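Sample intake sheet
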Amino acid sequence: MLSTLSDAEARMKAFRLLHMVARRGNAHEFPDNSLAALRSAIQLGARFIAIDVHLASDGTPMVIDDRELAKITDFEDLTAAQLGALDAGQPARFGDRFSDTRMASLATTLSLLEGRPEITAFIVLGRASVHKFGREHVISRVMRALKPVRTRCVLGSSDLATVHTARAIANYPIAWVLPAYNNHTRLKYEALQPDYLFCDYTLLPPQGMLWRGPWRWVIHDVNDLETVLTLAARGAQFVATREVRSLSEALRAHAAAEAAARDPSFTGTVTRW
């Protein structure tokens, strides 16, 4: 006789298959994309990180997102050395607490992965670079920096043509950062067949299973356990968060409670997501 999983059992099974992505590192406690934020996320047990990349005027890939880049006057003309000399401590958020923080190159940032084969990095290519330098040039420059850790990297962008180009010339796993969750977008990614789809949680309908395919869903800006459990049951394989410490603690506690419920003799902890 066939048995079916209860809603609770299905939810727990889905939860056990879900992973957490540290979006821009532990960006709640440290400046976005900073070495400190990424080190903290790794120390907290994150096995997946997502960082944003822009090319300096000399072609050096630097780790910064378009939003922060837009705050820098004439950023298009600045070299890696000039960008790296600027205050990247996000004083609007942290005051002068991180005034000694500087923007790091992609090569320096990826050195955090040395000796950590369990960590995968999502490299999100900024639109500003694509507009200035062109897709192929951005991708080729980033590929050079990724060589030492290429088997553990995914190339992504919010620009669909850039994602297409990355697949064609880089032969990396690819991710598309969706502008919307609707039928028009669905037609595009069903044709593209990406490895990952990033989607803001606020773009999703309030209920229903996520559209299935060969891709894996990464739902970002998720900060609480209840939302994680709901998304896991809806078919998400990853959640991305800036609240790495609080969410990882909640995930570990939930996993330990679940393990104890299955095996009362269990007294350990879950350390990595």
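Comment: The chain has a mean pLDDT of 91. The two ends are 36 Å apart (CA to CA).
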